[in-house]
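dumping these here so i dont lose them again. two proteins, back to back, each one seq then structure tokens. dont judge the mess
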Amino acid sequence: MSTQFPAGATPTEQPPVCPRHPDRVSYVRCQRCGRPACPECQRPAAVGVQCVDCVREAARATPTVRTALGGRVRGGRPVVTLTIIGLCAASFLLQRALPGWTGQWAFWPAAGEVQPWRFVTAAFLHSPRGFLHILFNMYALWLVGPYLEQTLGRWRYVALYLLAAVGGQVGVTLLAAPTLPGGWLTPVVGASGAVFGLFGAVLVVLRRLGRDARQILVFLALNSVIGFLVPGIAWQAHLGGLLTGLALGAAYAYAPRPRREVLGVTATVGAVVVLVVLAAAKYALV
């Protein structure tokens, strides 16, 4: 029986093995460090391949590119926006499949007092009777969401969306009339409050960066009119979400660069406190 050896190897030499997987023989070497790399540890490079360790080290050494407002520039898809759309779509399917799903997570002021999570969960529900409600909100989210996700960065974008959603329900609570029939018991669902918050924030961001914001103003004006003229639309949620988005957007956009992170956290916590205090004050008066 004869045994073949790769070119340059002799029968007395030990075959090279991958440092990360010593049980795997590899004659392919990293172009950067020269160590063997098995197929699992190989990454394509401009010339040849590099091992995963060298790729990771190079990534750490590469300076982080940020936007004018401190968001980290990332390639690829807007992960957070797509996640929100996916959650809304999944919840919508559950609403149509499970009769009690909407009532379990929808918001109305009387329920929000004892089940405060409804201030958030209602923003991931939509009218199960048709597709227009969710399609309009998800389209509007897609128009501004990716831009804000990139410009502000992921954590501020998530905070903005969730707090605008809460702000929408707080607006409903503050403007509801408990003494009127249904005023304290009317369910509210939809991402409209959160979306209006994003449009309020993008308006401030565009003005801060010196860009044209007229299209956003027209959109807000038209939808504000529709909210008052068309029955069944919770304009109170639109107003609450819009004001929350304007306030947080201004805090994020106009924070001085050296203190941007600290002020961003402070503004986020402050918004939570203000919304909680406003809702608690309303409930105390009822």
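---- next one ----
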Amino acid sequence: MNMDELIVEQIKKQAVPLNSTDDLEVLIEAIGDKKYVLLGEATHGTSEFYKLRMELSRKLIETKGFSFIAVEGDWPSCYEVNRYVKQYKDAKSSTRAVMEGFNRWPTWMWANEEVGELMDWLKKHNEDKPIEQRVGFYGLDVYSLWESLEEIERYLKKKGTPEQLALARKAFECFNSYDKEGQNYGVSAAFYGESCKDDVVKLLKELHVKRVRYDEDSEAALSAELNALVAVNAEDYYSTMVKHDAESWNVRDRHMVEALRRLALHHGSDAKVIVWEHNTHIGDARATDMMTDGMINVGQLVREAYGESDVCAIGFGTYRGTVIAAKSWGAPMATMQVPAAQQGSWEELMHRAGAYDQILLLNKEDPLLGHEVLGHRAIGVVYRPTSERGNYVPSVMARRYDAFVHVDESHALRPLTIEKVLV
């Protein structure tokens, strides 16, 4: 047998068919008492990935008491979801109204029917629980610079001191001259020394001190602090991006891990955390060619910070199907075909082992899957099916993930509004 055939035979022996959500129990058992569960996705536009992550999250919340879900989304818009599912008295009135806050491209990542179902479930789950036991929903990403500054100013008008409000307005005015374009700010900061960094760092320090000393209305104070953290790290991200793509990636993933740390700290020493992000973020970078490019990611940093024994990273992939994506950044979203995976790729070997949905538990000490480098498909919000070759990340699968969920034929997400175009 050649290497591909040996891997296929091993998958056949170890994989468990995924016929219904009851079959997810094998993952619940494998997670055990771990506090950090990282749930991936090979695309940002596949319905099955969202549905399966929802079912896994529901089981973890109901049976193991997980505290919150943190996602690859903006803090301000995701915090509106948090307020809605926790039923704060001035929260938005409906799931639809909340999801209209996801109005920055790519809107379909969170403004879709699958996430709406998760929100409805979380709201119902939280109904009869005291506020401190309600399960939250938060965004970890770094892109919402101007939205975060607006939220900070809004908060400080109600709760802050004149000195704090002055700090916020100074930072806002500094960034506002760049017409809400991160690239414009990045060029000015990187090449002309026109930086707003000192202003946002002072603001973050001030808000952190206030939250530590005065813990009334702690979620609102936490939100202001996390918005300030976004502003600090977004400044770093945009000023780095124009010179170093790899380092700007690292800034972004370090930010997400720091936001996660602050959220876990806020929820107490027994907090259990579920993270929803792309495979490229939650699968350990050290098991891919990212490492040779000097890149780190959330999966690596969380394992290093909390220990591999307390972290479970689960990758998700598909052999073929349809997906919501766009042909270029900012272009209209469309339903696109995902062609059959390339010969010898991880997805093709999973399909060859069985043309059905499967769950595979992984062990980094495995002599095959813990050492063999295989191409593993990754599709972003921008996708060109005719240029598929560049979408495969060389990966040692059992070192990248603790488990893998294979959807043999997947289907596009259901965005709230979309012209159903098949490309």
